[in-house]
Structure formats: C-alpha cells, structure tokens
Amino acid sequence: MSTQILLRSSSALSRFTMLSTAGRLGTATRAFSVSSLVSAPKKGEKKATKKVTKKATKKVQVKKKPEQKKPAAPKVTREDYPPKRPLTPYLRFFTENYSIKSAFNDAKDMTERKKALGALSTEAGNAWKGLSEKEKKKYSDAYFADKIVYEKNMKEYMARTSPEVIKEINKRQKKLGNHLIKYTSNEEKRPLNPFIKFFMEQRGKEVVTNNAEFLREVGVKWRGMSDAAKAPYREAYNQEHEEYKQKVAKA
C-alpha cells in the first residue's frame, strides 16, 4: 500500500516538474520573440545610434564700420562749359579759304581721308607762308581782338564756376582729347616780360611745327631789333607791372 502511494507521488512530481519546465520555456520563447520584434531592424535599415551633439558656440559678430559714400559727381550742362577759344590767324585763313568736307568727297576709306587731309594741310601751309605781312595782319588783328573778349569772358567764367564742375568737365575733355581748363584762383598774374610778349605775338602769326627751332628764330629776330622797335613792348610791360603792384598792394 505504501509502495503504491510512493509511486503515485513520484509520478505526480515528475509531471509537475515537466509542466513547470515547459512553462518556463514558453515564457522565455515569448519574451525572445517580442524582444526580437522590437529591436530587430528591418532589411535595408541601419540601427539607430545616439548622436553626440556638440554644444553650440556663439559667434562674436564684429560690427563693420559703415563705408563712406563717394560724393556724387556734379551735373554738367552745356552752359557750364567755358567760352570757346578764338581761332589763331592761320586757322582763320584756313577756314576762310579751304574746306575739309570737299577734300573728303572722293575719299573711300579712312586711309584715303588721311592722305587727302595731309595734302590739304600742306597746300594751306604753303599758301600761308606765301602771304605778305600785310596780308597776314588782317587775320592777326581779328585774332587779338577776339582774344581780348575771350580773356574777359574766361575771367567771369572762372569766378562763377566751382572747382568740382571744372574737374568734371576736364575728365570729359581728356577722354575726347580736347583742351583742359586750367583752374586758377582770382590772384593777379604777373605781366609777361617784353620778349615773351613779342614771342607770343610772333607765334600767333606763324604755323609752328618745331617749337625749339621757332624759339631760336624769334630770339635772333628780337636781338636784331633796335631799341626803338623794342620800346612798345617795354612800355607795355612797365605799365602792366605798375598796375600789378597796385592790385597786389590792395589785396
């Protein structure tokens, strides 16, 4: 009887052990399957890794100094340009007797135009040299009369025109290859000495191709002149010099 009881209890114990073992295995299997579903990445995906973020550093911005704008160029109109220079005696003779347009009529291109202009200039220069002093005097007198008016108008122009406007005009004149305006103050200029006055007078009468040679020729002519011939130039200089000294003393 006792033996049967022992056998039954041992069989019951073995069943209990098997059931508990199976239960533990089932729990572990379920836990593994759940964890695999959660942590296992899909195909083509990488495991998420924690990125180490660096602390953002503040950049110190240096304030730039405001750039100074250049002053705008003054507006220049035709009225701001200086009065026109008077034509020299030779140019008066040239414009009166020759036409550049007529010389260009038969020219086909720029090369032929240059040749035509050169031939016309040579012809006019030879014709001017062939004139007598009396014939040239007509053109010289007209030039000096216009020059007096020009110098008066130029003084008024310089007095009313600002240096900025003159500077802007000179920029444009330089690009075109024209005469530049020499800005001068209202200070009185010294008068020209007798020889320089004579030289300027002779220069207005001749076509000068070589300045150094022309200066030597005028110097020889001046030294060969008598005191009576030089007297008008010296008297004019002395008078202008006295007026100059009085104006400087008043200033």
Your description of this structure?
This protein is mainly alpha-helical. The chain has 2 domains: 73-186, DNA Binding (I), subunit A (Orthogonal Bundle), CATH 1.10.30.10; 187-250, DNA Binding (I), subunit A. The chain has 9 helices and no strands. The termini are far apart. InterPro entries: HMG_box_dom (IPR009071), HMG_box_dom_sf (IPR036910), HMGB (IPR050342). Residues 83-158, 188-251 bind DNA. This is HMG box domain-containing protein. Residues 64-81 have a biased composition (Basic and acidic residues).
Give a nutshell description of this structure.
The protein is mainly α and 251 residues long. 64% of the residues lie in helices and 0% in strands.
Residue share in β-strands: under 5%
Helix content: 55-70%
SSE run: HHHHHHHHH
- Helix/strand structural class: mainly alpha
How does the major sheet shape up?
none
Number of helices: 9
CATH C-level class of the largest domain: Mainly Alpha
- Please compute the radius of gyration using only Cα atoms: 54 Å
- Which architecture of the largest domain would the CATH scheme give at its second level? Orthogonal Bundle
Q: Report the CATH topology name of the largest domain.
A: DNA Binding (I), subunit A
Shape: flat
Low-confidence runs (pLDDT<50, min 5 residues)?
31-38
Number of strands: 0
- Quote the average pLDDT: 76
CATH superfamily of the largest domain: High mobility group box domain
Number of domains: 2
Q: N- to C-terminal separation?
A: 158 Å
